[in-house]
């Protein structure tokens, strides 16, 4: 009754569980490397479906207008719909599957707990314990996801020069990264950029750091800072 009463949430729960399943079989290619590549695509397509359903839930009345598009781009679900479309037809990259896997796992765990509560307050204590441990590490998981989002930017450039990526991919991914940096609901990408800058500045200011390395790092920090969008 609980599942039928919340059909859209249930559909997203099932698609997230399927995303976790496909992502796991890509990361751990138990069925062979050829099958792993197909599971990579399936995971991203399932994530695109979940993101589209979530976006429909957040903005139910679609309008073909600039204002609606601007509002949609503020939603995290729109960001990850774009993310899935960027990588679904690209060469499989393990780094790119981790954000999809972990976000799906976190959201699926949250809804699984609601399903268990609807069934009985004491049902499946072992599963409840696993869900509580996952929830306790949520902040670390979100930081790890943000770290993946950041380091995928140079990875897309490397893929371009190695012949495994398209010319447009780094530019489209840069747009995705600016959306994540400006996210209202998830500040972790912005926080990680700040933390990484502090760590790098601390290391290069040590007397043992060569001058040319210090200058190169400072120039890189200045360049990246200019690319960062303004956050309200």
From TrEMBL:
Its main location: membrane. It is a multi-pass membrane protein. The chain crosses the membrane at residues 12-33, 80-106, 150-174. InterPro entries: PER33/POM33_regulator, TMEM33/Pom33. GO terms for cellular component: endoplasmic reticulum; membrane. Keywords: Membrane, Transmembrane, Transmembrane helix. One of its GO terms (biological process) is endoplasmic reticulum tubular network organization. It is found in: Membrane. Belongs to the PER33/POM33 family. This is TMM33 protein. It comes from Upupa epops (Eurasian hoopoe).
